[in-house]
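tmp note - Protein-export membrane protein SecG
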Amino acid sequence: MQTVLNIMLIVTSLLLILLVLLHRGRGGGLSSLFGGGMQSSLAGSSVAEKNLDRLTVLVGSIWVITIVGLGLMMKMNV
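out:
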């Protein structure tokens, strides 16, 4: 079970990094490298932003639950 949680932690960590970098920055930043500056010409970008926010919160919640689960497992094994 601990191996599954470790793998889950690695996957969610990488996914969380990717999702945070995809957010539109206020001053350009890394998100402009992926076409963040072209967003004003795209229609419906606010729906995409909301979905990206929801997905980021979901992955972040899974990440926190995984860390708490690993912490509890390590405490029980000691």
